[in-house]
Amino acid sequence: MNVKILGKVRHYRTVTFHPARNTVALIEQRLLPHRFEIIETRDFRATARAIRDMVVRGAGAIGATAAYGLAQGARAFRGRSLEAFSRHVDEVYSTLKNARPTAVDPVNAMNQVRAAMRAGETVEEQQALALAAAEEFANDDVRHCEEIGRHGAKLIRNGSRILTHCNAGWLAFVDIGSATAPMYAAQAQGKKFHVFCDETRPRCQGATLTAWELAQQGISHEIIADNAAGHLMQRGEIDLVIVGSDRTLGRTGEVANKIGTYTKAVLAKRHGIPFYVAIPLSTIDWTLKSGFDIPIEERSESEVLGAWGVPVNLKSQISNLKSRYVRIANPGSSARNPGFDVTPAELITGIITPVGIFRPRELWKHRKALGFGL
Ligand code: MRU
């Protein structure tokens, strides 16, 4: 998407690769919205750390980062033995896979890269194929998000008031985003609407990333505290909910997404508000048979016990762009921090995919069109 920095507008992808330096370039998302910086990871371990520590986050973005990280690791191998190369690639794969467990996109992305590498007969050929496949994954991610926008824009009317949770915007993908794609497409069609961004404690991706993105793209929005959605729904101030997903089960239609999504789905059902989930094909897990089997990441308690921000002066002007952590909670109290929850199919009106909008339990019926077995 386009980013305006110091008066200049430039198009950025969240994740790119520099073949000559064998580095992965990432927007440092932990600094947003106060600072815009690109960092480069120099080897696959640094790339895995960037995923684990959430320099880059969001299902599609960590999928593309893992794909590039696999290519990066493969290209760093020196030698001709295909056996030694394969052992090395196994290690790269598991290091990147273990960086974050809930999103399935990194696994799907790396499986695609590994499948493409098999056509190579030498180490060198496989290295070249790895990078080509990683680039293809990143380009497909952009294309899928464009298509999600095309299908999802129909759900947005002039005057719609939309709730979204966390950040399933372009920062969570290579470009455009999943939940935001219908919004950007509707905006391009000239529709006027308003977006409520859940703050999304504990890391506040809604207040920091989604709000920043929407502001950059000139979309009317307000941040709400996570607990405010029920009140607004009860007063008839929300017409539609669109969220993303980190893993959607193709067999059952269950959706893992940022903690708090399930609560919003229950509220939406209570108030008869349509609840949609937008996903590229790489977010579908065709293997698991129950949402209870989805690995839910438990993150550090420090995220719940405190918060990051920048100091402001009395006129609310930011006085220092360096983010600081402050303790909020009672000293000595501990916290529990599950990062994701699972929303059952019956609470979801539809899944917006690149090939159309489906009822969650219909994903399996449409599995061929949705890329199953590719
Ligand atoms: O922990 P994060 O920030 O990587 O979580 C991912 C998310 O931003 C959300 O769960 C999002 O809604 C889906 S990712 C496209």
How would you describe this structure to a colleague?
- With 374 residues, the chain is of the alpha/beta class.
- It folds into 2 domains: 2-145, translation initiation factor eif-2b, domain 1 (Four Helix Bundle (Hemerythrin (Met), subunit A), Up-down Bundle); 148-362, Translation initiation factor eif-2b, domain 2 (Rossmann fold, 3-Layer(aba) Sandwich), CATH 3.40.50.10470.
- It has helices at residues 44-52, 59-75, 82-97, 105-117, 123-152, 181-188, 205-216, 229-234, 261-270, 302-305; strands at residues 2-5, 8-11, 15-18, 23-27, 38-41, 161-164, 194-198, 221-224, 240-243, 247-249, 255-258, 275-278, 284-285, 306-309, 324-327, 340-343, 350-353, 356-358.
- It has a 7-stranded mixed sheet, with helices on both faces. It has a 4-stranded mixed sheet with strand order 13-10-11-16, with helices on one face. Strands 3-4-5 form a 3-stranded antiparallel sheet.
- The two termini are 29 Å apart.
- 5-S-methyl-1-O-phosphono-5-thio-D-ribulose binds at residues 57-60, 166-168, 172, 178, 205, 243-246, 257-258, 339.
Q: Keywords, please?
A:
single chain; 374 residues; alpha/beta; Four Helix Bundle (Hemerythrin (Met), subunit A); Rossmann fold; 2 domains; seven-stranded mixed sheet; four-stranded mixed sheet; 33% helix; binds 5-S-methyl-1-O-phosphono-5-thio-D-ribulose
